[in-house]
Design goal:
Length: 304
């Protein structure tokens, strides 16, 4: 049953019609648990609350299924507006974005030009931008663009996914540019030709990649709610003497709040991924796919 629900939500997340319809409405079906609001003001308010107890954030203006140059430029403008709002409000947050929202599927150069504009803006504000990793079809091109951008910018990082067989090699290669990596398990439905089908293999690979990147002396954002992995990172850091300025834990808005606060109290850096915007549907469906038990939460809200 769980597998059926997971596949169902992963398919819904990619459904263009459902995503377009959802855009017309405000947050529905309990989406406000995972999405901080529709407007930047609402998002800033949510980050302020996180900052109060010591958590920092990464804001993401949600935007998927971009099919025109105008939409890509609008998305770029929203990223810049987000960086300006961070600077104006004084909240502690950087920016996360998806390269498809900047036009990657329309024209690679358009996406690169938009990235450059955003990174220049971030540099003016002394801020940092993280490139989220999308499905396998976008992996290689995202890494290639990242490598090029890294030659001119030191305020950019990328995400790599532990479920992909290729990632160990990617971590080794990106060591050459001292990449700042967010390591995750991976949220998309991928074929067993490219990704470990068994969760226990993903978890083992995840630990291996974290150790590899830390050992190379690079900054590592460990983005998971998995307490066993978090314990593994704490143990590694203690045994091998990695400073707490070499890594941080990251979690998603609305998930494992107690754990987030506990880690802050223990003196670890915790960054919360805070998505906002009208394009909430696909993001929300991926969160349901990760934990179909959340569906009961959605149904409760549906009937409210
Ligand atoms: P796992 O799935 O093993 O879950 C561990 C425990 O966490 C579960 O037992 C459950 O209790 C809790 N949990 C996990 N997901 C939950 C949910 N949705 N609702 C409630 N509880 C939940 N992926 C990607 O492909 N590209 C990306 O760029 C990113 N970016 C990213 C940023 C940040 C900050 C995070 C935390 C995650 C991502 N991800 C991502 C998503 C990631 O790949 C993965 O799908 C989720 O983090 C869920 O996996 P866990 O590591 O939490 O482990």
């Amino acid at each position: 049953m769980e597998v059926v629900l997971r596949n169902f939500f992963q398919a819904l997340a990619k459904n263009t019609t459902a995503n377009q319809m959802a855009k017309k409405y405000g947050l529905r079906f309990g989406a406000s648990r995972f999405v901080a609001g529709i407007t930047i003001d609402e998002a800033v308010k949510s980050v302020n609350i996180l900052n109060r107890d010591g958590r920092v954030a990464t804001l993401d203006h949600l935007g998927e299924f971009i099919s025109t140059r105008e939409e890509a430029l609008e998305s770029t403008r929203m990223c810049i507006e987000t960086l300006e709002a961070i600077a104006d409000s004084g909240i502690k947050s950087n920016l996360s974005l998806k390269m498809t929202s900047l036009g990657l599927d329309i024209d690679k150069q358009l996406c690169v030009d938009n990235m450059v504009q955003i990174l220049e803006c971030a540099r003016r504000y002394n801020n940092f931008v993280r490139i989220d990793m999308e499905d396998y079809a976008h992996c290689e091109v995202s890494i290639d663009i990242y490598r090029e951008l890294r030659k001119s910018f030191d305020n950019v990082g990328i995400v790599l996914q532990a479920y992909l067989y290729r990632t160990e090699q990617d971590v080794a290669e990106l060591n050459q540019c001292n990449a700042n990596l967010r390591l995750v398990k991976g949220a998309y439905k991928e074929s067993s030709k490219v990704a470990f089908p068994d969760k226990k293999d993903v978890d083992e690979n995840y630990k291996k990649l974290i150790s590899q990147h830390l050992e190379n002396g690079n900054y590592t954002a460990v983005a998971t709610h998995d307490e066993a992995i978090i314990q593994y990172v704490k143990d590694e850091a203690r045994q091998k003497g990695y400073g707490r300025d070499q890594f941080e834990f990251q979690m998603l808005y609305g998930i494992a709040e107690d754990l987030q606060k506990r880690l802050v109290k223990e003196g670890y850096k915790v960054r919360v991924y805070v998505p906002y915007g009208r394009d909430w549907f696909g993001y929300n469906m991926r969160r349901l796919a990760e934990r179909p038990a959340n569906v009961w939460f959605v149904l409760k809200n549906f009937f409210k």
